[in-house]
Give the backbone structure.
Amino acid sequence: MADISGTKTIVEASLNALLDDETFLPDLHSATREKAFSSLVSILSTPNHVHKSFLRVPLENGKVVRIPAFRVQHNNIMGPYKGGIRFHEAINEDEVVELSSLMTLKSALHDIPFGGGKGGVVINPRDYETKELHLISKKYVQYFSDILGPEKDIPAPDVGTSAREMDWMMGEYKSIRPGMKYRSSFTGKSVVNGGSLGRREATGKGVYFTFRYLMHDFLNAQHQWLKERDNIFVKTALDHEGRSLTLAIQGFGNVGSVVALEAYKSPHLNNKVVSVSDKNVTLYNSDGIDIPELLKFTTRNNNELPVSEKELKDVDIKADIMDRDDILTLNVDVLFLAALGHQVHKENMEGIKARVIVEGANAPLTTEADDFLSDQGVIIIPDILANAGGVIVSYLEWLQGRDTQFLSEEEVYERLHDKMQETLDVVLPQYFGDAFPLRKNCYIHAVMKLSTVLFRQGKLY
Ligand code: GLU
């Protein structure tokens, strides 16, 4: 069950922190101010629209099924709704709502001119033939074409979808709405079909960049200033001086595998990937795992990690095989959560030993686990800060689709890193200067921007 109240609580807490700040919305006073703030809570914690349909799909076996599908449009004050479409058997309306609100906050935090949206189709894509998935993707566009579009709502890949689905969907959109700027109607497409170079790697690259910037670039640049702060992060980050930071990465898909490779190749940080996992297995080697070799294996093996001694031996990778969820409780410095939502919760939160958690997935901690671990002094680098690389490069793809001028891969990564660094340079000094956890700090920044624009557009009544 999704954790909508989590987003609402933190939006409310951010606004409470801002209520007493006279420099924030200085035109609002006393009763009007209180009223405007309560409007803000309701606007930012409720979606504008929840669209639900049952896609009618004939299967290869002759049966015709009706598949529940959603598109939630949370908020568009900053620009068109934007967010992925997830194909997952356990997705439900509440979760899509929660994920759409994270998109609103993520885009606002990084100054991307988009609002927040999210889609979901309740299927396990592994249970369907390619032909059926093609039909499901087309049907999604047929059912929702009125509310989608390059200036209205722009979907992208998410869990269970990829460039293949976006290509199919864009193709269908182009047929239904001829004459529209179809290249910008979906992002995360294949490069030949108007996608951006670097989009596939963008989320993972951004996650690792955020982590590296925090643990290395910012730390080195601000060393003296930071040393004087009695901040738990500083203690954690400085504590490892002289030895490798150990990293465990949950999820070896589009995000986790890119994070693993970035960490393996990193010339900046002394770190080593000692563990990776996927839906079947955890692999562990205290000396570090050979990530490039592992990627060769997963590319050949339907993106799945080796599960037996024999498979490991065949590719000459040394690692212990453990249960899938063992990765969460390993004795490592840093845990990257790059699989699904709500992976760390009440039942397993006490077993976490990592001192730093990086959220590559959206909402991988329940609110309870987030509170518990923050109280224990664990540094949590939140999703809306760390995993925004996907939507940042989606924005570049959207721009490239409009003017049909395309950037090189290098230009894309440069712009991605610049954008993330701009945000980090705003958020971090404040984080080290006050007592809030990083998540709350990011929410305050995002909520502040959204509120100011809502106010300026006369929407707070
Ligand atoms: N699904 C990704 C996310 O959750 C990317 C969204 C997009 O590119 O629009 O951030």
